Amino acid sequence: MGNCLNSSSAQVDTTLSSHASGTSKNVSKSSYSGPSSLTISSYSEMSSASSLQTPRSEGEILLSPSVKPFSFIELKNATRNFRPDSVLGEGGFGCVFKGWIDEFTLTASKPGSGMIIAVKKLKPEGYQGHKEWLTEVKYLGQLRHPNLVKLVGYCSEGDSRLLVYEFMPKGSLENHLFRRGPQPLPWATRLKVAIGAARGLAFLHDAEEQVIYRDFKASNILLDAEFNAKLSDFGLAKAGPTGDKTHVSTQVMGTQGYAAPEYIATGRLTAKSDVYSFGVVLLELLSGRRALDKQKTGIEQDLVEWAKPYLGDKRKLFRIMDTKLEGQYPQKAAYTAATLASQCLNLEPKTRPRMSQVLSSLEELQASKGASKDHHKVMSSPVGKSPMRQVPHHRQSPRNLTPLASPLPHHRQSLQVR
Ligand SMILES: Nc1ncnc2c1ncn2[C@@H]1O[C@H](COP(=O)(O)OP(=O)(O)OP(=O)(O)O)[C@@H](O)[C@H]1O
Ligand SMILES: [Mg+2]
């Protein structure tokens, strides 16, 4: 977390990437003249739908009335000079700090008073850079939904780029599933998190002009005090295909282990790519294992490959279930969830369900008698018989997509490093 301790102004990585033509162009900051021509989608649920109908310049995006432009000094004060002990976490973009602002004036307030915020600060050598920072402001600044994290504001001053979010007290799903410390999530909470995240994705996909999230993974699912899930990190979000187009062609970006195979291979992005990633996270919720675990050997490194054969077999499913559940889950519901995961992971994108269908199935599961409470009919899973090994509690950063079949060159930006 070395970068978190450096409170000097962050430099901005303004590397822009091209799309699936196979080229990648790097535009230096000096040649990046600010305004970009980003195409915006419109949504009935948006806070200011009219501003999303037309392409907007960078300046217009940043002028959105729903997000506050903060000065660097304000955020420095709000986080007590980006104190190391207020670090909430670190990702590809940089470190996330806890801070306080007055809930009415949105100015820095004393720690412990006002509203808690999470401040994400671009690190000097951040990969995601300016373009993703702007994309995040563009989408999260306009989209409002109970299952999307709220962007309070941003800071763009000199080379510094920061994002200010509502604080999510329970942190990320990744922390709860894979790290030592928090109590293991009970079955009912896992189902609740899956439903919240599915609702967020379904909202994006079914919006008047579709949004493809492209970075669905456990670390981007944040949890409030009641374990309501909210999606964060819209830096890779993309407008879905319009008219009679079936997909959008993009440079392959995402996170290894979560990205859909056909997208890695072709750069063709559809909402079904998100559905695949949802299937991976559903498997993580069932198994307590990471999508990609380099600490393991052979097939066990790859959760999907390892788990797939067990998903359709009621009697064998217990073998992949999280031992931390200690058998406390309803057998039927677990099997239904596993079947759903298997459908989401179908290699043929067209046969994957839509997120709205996934959501309905999960909601039915939650509503069905005994889905979350009946622990009498648990899998008869003598924990010792499970092939699961202890989940490692260290953090892994599967940041390089290495699609063997990808036609894309191995430019830094073409294979996303997150
Ligand atoms: N709004 C928030 N409230 C509370 N904690 C947060 C918030 N946003 C981020 N965090 C914490 O900071 C951590 C780092 O988040 P960040 O989005 O920068 O990286 P990441 O998602 O882990 O990785 P990547 O850069 O690959 O997306 C999260 O895992 C979470 O624990
Ligand atoms: Mg994240």
From TrEMBL:
A Pfam family it matches: PK_Tyr_Ser-Thr
Compositionally biased intervals (Basic residues): 409-418
- One example GO MF annotation: ATP binding
Q: Which domain of life is it from?
A: Eukaryota
Which UniProt key words apply to this protein?
Answer: ATP-binding, Cell membrane, Kinase, Membrane, Nucleotide-binding, Plant defense, Serine/threonine-protein kinase, Transferase
Q: Name one GO cellular component term.
A: plasma membrane
Instruction: Provide the residue span(s) of the region labelled Disordered.
Output: 1-35, 367-418
The EC designation for this entry is: 2.7.11.1
Q: Which GO terms describe its biological process?
A: defense response
Keyword ATP-binding, does the record have it?
yes
In which residues is ATP bound? 121
Spell out the subcellular localization from the entry.
Cell membrane
Catalytic EC class? transferase
The residue ranges of the Protein kinase domain are: 82-365
Query: What CDD domains does the database record attribute to this sequence?
Result: STKc_IRAK
SUPFAM superfamilies recorded: Protein kinase-like (PK-like)
Family according to the record: Belongs to the protein kinase superfamily.
Record-given protein name: non-specific serine/threonine protein kinase
Q: Which organism is it from?
A: Lactuca sativa
